[in-house]
């Protein structure tokens, strides 16, 4: 594993974790009294699904790699750019009223975890298409998401929802940038 690959996977993990961070901030905003031992299961669930979904996408991508390998870099670019632009648009939209929800209910935690991990499935698909080994990226993605989620709940107790929206914009820029990097590497290298 090269240093450049580590940085790339870390940035992908950071970009993917912004949805979970925003959800965690909302949890902190809704439950100002949230304690560490209450935050851990929420952060673990968000991180677990964020790590498992790329593995599922990777398996799918590996199985169809031979069919689409001539254009895999374009597909990876398109998927990452689509997700990045979607995140940027979500961050730019005007703030609506926060939904009232109880983040301590298992059904809510799992629902939030799945909802924030769909983009990770697409990233995993890109990894499979590009024949990138998956163990290290999913470990990094899971760890970064866990830390971001714990920090999000802590910050949610202290900051406004506006700052969590800015994190979505940053995450979108990171994912789009990585998509451009993949495309340029395959075109020029």
Brief account:
With 189 residues, the chain is mainly α.
Protein model, in words:
It is a single chain. The chain starts with a helix and ends with a helix. By secondary structure, the protein is an all-alpha fold. The chain has one domain. It has helices spanning 3-30, 36-63, 65-68, 72-92, 106-129, 135-156, 161-188. The chain is globular, with a radius of gyration of 17 Å. The longest helix is centred in the first third of the chain and has 28 residues, at 3-30.
The number of domains is 1
Structural class, please?
mainly alpha
Oligomer class: single chain
Based on CA inertia axes, which overall geometry fits? globular
Largest sheet: none
Q: Cα-atom Rg, whole angstroms?
A: 17 Å
Helix percent band: over 70%
Total of helices: 7
Highlighted features:
mainly alpha; transmembrane helix; cell membrane; transport; ion transport
Task: Describe the secondary-structure layout.
Elements: H1 3-30, H2 36-63, H3 65-68, H4 72-92, H5 106-129, H6 135-156, H7 161-188
């Amino acid at each position: 594993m090269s240093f450049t690959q580590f940085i790339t996977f870390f940035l992908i993990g950071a970009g993917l974790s912004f949805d979970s961070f925003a959800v965690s901030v909302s949890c902190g905003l809704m439950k100002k009294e949230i304690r560490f031992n209450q935050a851990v299961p929420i952060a673990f669930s968000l991180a677990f699904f964020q790590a498992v979904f790329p593995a599922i996408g990777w398996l799918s991508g590996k199985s169809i790699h031979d069919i689409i390998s001539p254009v895999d870099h374009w597909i990876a670019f398109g998927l990452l750019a689509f997700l990045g632009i979607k995140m940027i648009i979500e961050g730019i939209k005007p703030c609506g009223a926060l939904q009232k929800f109880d983040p301590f209910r298992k059904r809510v935690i799992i629902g939030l975890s799945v909802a924030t991990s769909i983009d990770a499935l697409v990233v995993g698909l890109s990894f499979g298409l590009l024949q990138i080994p998956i163990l290290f990226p999913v470990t990094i993605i899971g760890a970064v998401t866990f830390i971001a989620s714990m920090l999000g709940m802590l910050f949610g107790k202290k900051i406004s929802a506006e700052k969590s929206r800015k994190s979505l914009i940053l995450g979108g820029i990171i994912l789009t940038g990585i998509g451009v990097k993949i495309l340029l590497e395959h075109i020029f290298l």
